[in-house]
Design brief:
Layout (H helix, E strand, L loop, with lengths): L4 E4 L1 H8 L6 H13 L4 E6 L12 H8 L6 E5 L3 H10 L3 E7 L2 H8 L3 H13 L6 E7 L12 H14 L2 E6 L6 H15 L3 E6 L6 H10 L4 E4 L19 H10 L8 H14 L9 H4 L10
Parallel strand pairs: 1-2, 1-8, 2-3, 3-4, 4-5, 5-6, 6-7, 7-8
The chain binds zinc ion.
The site of zinc ion has 6 residues, from loops.
Length: 301
């Protein structure tokens, strides 16, 4: 069992925000390479209306494919009961429900208040889902491009409601506003409210603090992190900025600290080559893939 558990969200968070569509066959090859590099959990897509997000139209097919990869936990995102039913039909092992702590973000994104979104998650939780893990993700937990600051009390309250309905809860810095002091403070507050149900941290590197925030969360006891290969997806509001924290850099940081991620960096670079050949015009990021591994580097010694 790895000490650090990384969920690759590039096929969902990355491709959903990318300008270029990745063909279904290329997605399968990329996901296969990610699993071969040692990733044990991959968020492969989102069950949203295909008309809204064409990049996610093949999610059911991608879930069925990903389920053939041995030992892989296949995660899908669902914004409502309809999406959840599609995720169950497709056979996802785990479903993530995003609930925005920012009222403005929630109303403009899903046309529901955060409270109405929590009720939608309740409907899903009450729907039979044998063996399927539910995750409630508090999005815009560290700030919002529409609303600006998000009150910490709102984050704690929504996390507490989600903890009653879901198997685990994650806090997400959807727009890359978080800083390490804030990460420590909010993770500590939420943990004192919901204990071990607080599991995941989802950071974006929009303002260059993705790794610093991940380290701050680690020091608060977090062991589950989302990241995306190459920081894929960028940020629609910040041209030139990467999307999620870069998987390659996150793996390097933890392995260099002597912590086991279960992931092989050389194999990860091969998966990155597949990604960039599938959508060559899409910008991807990351320090380690460009600079290379330090001389004499070895995994978690
Ligand atoms: Zn995200």
């Amino acid at each position: 069992m790895s000490e650090i558990h990384i969920c690759e969200v590039g096929p969902r968070d990355g491709l959903q925000n990318a300008k270029h569509l990745m063909p279904t066959q290329a997605k399968k090859a990329w996901i296969g390479a990610l699993a071969a590099a040692g990733l044990r959990e991959i968020e492969v897509g989102s069950f949203v209306p295909p008309k809204l997000i064409p990049a996610m139209a093949d999610t059911a097919e991608i879930v069925s494919f990903a389920k053939t990869l041995p030992g892989l936990k296949v995660v899908a995102l669902a914004p409502n009961l309809k999406g959840f039913q599609r995720a169950l039909e497709a056979g996802a092992h785990k479903v993530t429900f995003p609930v925005s702590a920012s009222r403005l973000h929630s109303e403009s994104n899903v046309r529901m208040t955060p409270e109405q979104m929590v009720e939608e998650v309740r409907k899903c939780a009450q729907h039979p889902h044998p063996g399927v893990e539910l995750e409630g993700a508090v999005s815009t937990a560290f700030g919002c491009t529409l609303q600006g600051p998000v009150p910490e009390d709102d984050v704690v309250r929504i996390a507490a409601r989600l903890a009653e309905l879901c198997d685990c809860v994650a806090l997400a810095d959807t727009v890359g506003y978080a800083n390490p002091a804030q990460v420590r403070r909010i993770f500590r507050r939420v943990k004192s409210e919901i204990g071990e149900k607080l599991e995941g941290a989802h950071f974006h590197d929009t303002r260059g603090l993705g790794l610093a925030n991940a380290l701050a969360a680690y020091e608060e006891g977090v062991r589950h992190f989302d990241s995306s290969m190459g920081g894929l997806g960028g940020c629609p509001f910040a041209p030139g900025a990467s999307g999620n924290v870069v998987t390659e850099d996150l793996v390097f940081m933890f392995e260099a600290m002597g912590l086991d991620t279960g992931i092989d960096l050389e194999a990860l670079f091969k998966a990155r080559a597949l990604l960039s050949s599938a959508i060559p015009e899409e910008p991807i990021y990351g320090h380690i893939p460009l600079a290379g591994l330090p001389k004499g580097f070895s995994r978690h010694v």
